[in-house]
# Entry
Amino acid sequence: MNESPSTTNSSDPVTLSPARDRSADLRRITDALLMPIGYELGIGHLCPCDIWDLCIVHADHDGETDFDQPIATGSREDVDTAISTLASVLDARRAVSDHYSGPLCEDPDDSTGAKPFRSRFENIPRPDLVSEHTPGWCDEDAGDPVVASRFIFRSHNDEFGLDFDVMENNPGTVSIGLLPSSWDWNVETSEELLELSDHTPRLQQWLDDCATVTAWVNENNTVKEARNA
# Structure
């Protein structure tokens, strides 16, 4: 456990900047580590001493961090270097796999080559949602060069600049993420904020749908794990 009162992926603008800039790498490394649902790679910042952490974190049902395992500690540049190194390792691993894909990765019993992606949620009915989501339930390649990953749900909330997505790795974990997609809001008038306030009922409805999707994913993923136990 990391006993320092660090701020990990919080609303602290100092912490948000590197977390935002490296969000794609953090997600890719998290997925490659094949950790249980809810554990993710994050960036922590101890403000008084300006100490930074690259760490694996987990939050309890109340949103409080109950697990914090540091990987690298030092300056912001040290943490950024650690992220770049891990991302480069994944790139190198993929390059090696591509280079030796014939003699090392070929299954002699599989004449068709690579096995197709089989979703653990295949043929399970999706729950109905209230709001419209773009694109909503889907089957999209996540573009990860190392781990076979597909998005099974994606939604963008334009009014509040939020993205919610569910990504399934095969084999591995299911990643559920809610991330800001807009960081350039410049408020010039009070009317702009009042307009956002008028939209909060739609935001609540959107978040309710995201909660429905999350509950469905966790329930059915748990069922699959129990059957395979």
Remarks:
- The two ends are 29 Å apart (CA to CA).
